């Protein structure tokens, strides 16, 4: 076999990272239904058993990809908060991720991994992110930028429910334009802030 035909050699950790990167790329291009361990193995130039050494089946791979996709989402949200701590910035970053990464958004916020009792690691990572956002909201409340009469976690849950519904409608093709979804997201945050002010009055 010539050197050009030889299969690439991976260290243990390198192959796992390569599998995850290739898996995310395939989901971006073809969705979860287009994910195939055999095709990933062919793409990476390794045997299918080599992939099974890291992920015992497609479902295990999806859990690993879900954790990686959630990590990407967290980076986007943290960057938005670091740049501008307002609820509007949070909302725009959230819907922006859903718009630009619809397949990854479906993976991390869809039922596939959330209804799976074996996806504890993924679910724990997601809940940790929600707690981090709750701490951010608590900090805004402590600074007097948000009313304190509603617990921070409940504020996050209401905002999340509103934005998730909006993103699902957009990604499912329910008529919104990119400009409209951003304006609706900002309006939702404004209305929520007014409602909190009214409750605290």
From TrEMBL:
Domain HTH tetR-type: 13-73
DNA-binding residues (ranges): 36-55
CDD domains: HTH_XRE
Keyword field: DNA-binding, Transcription, Transcription regulation
Upper lineage: Bacteria, Pseudomonadati, Pseudomonadota, Gammaproteobacteria, Moraxellales
Source organism: Paraperlucidibaca baekdonensis
UniProt cross-references to InterPro entries, sorted A to Z: Cro/C1-type_HTH, DNA-bd_HTH_TetR-type_CS, Homeodomain-like_sf, HTH-type_TetR-like_transc_reg, HTH_TetR, MT1864/Rv1816-like_C, Tet_transcr_reg_TetR-rel_C_sf
An example molecular function term from Gene Ontology annotations: transcription cis-regulatory region binding
Protein's UniProt name: TetR family transcriptional regulator
One Pfam family linked to the record: TetR_C_33
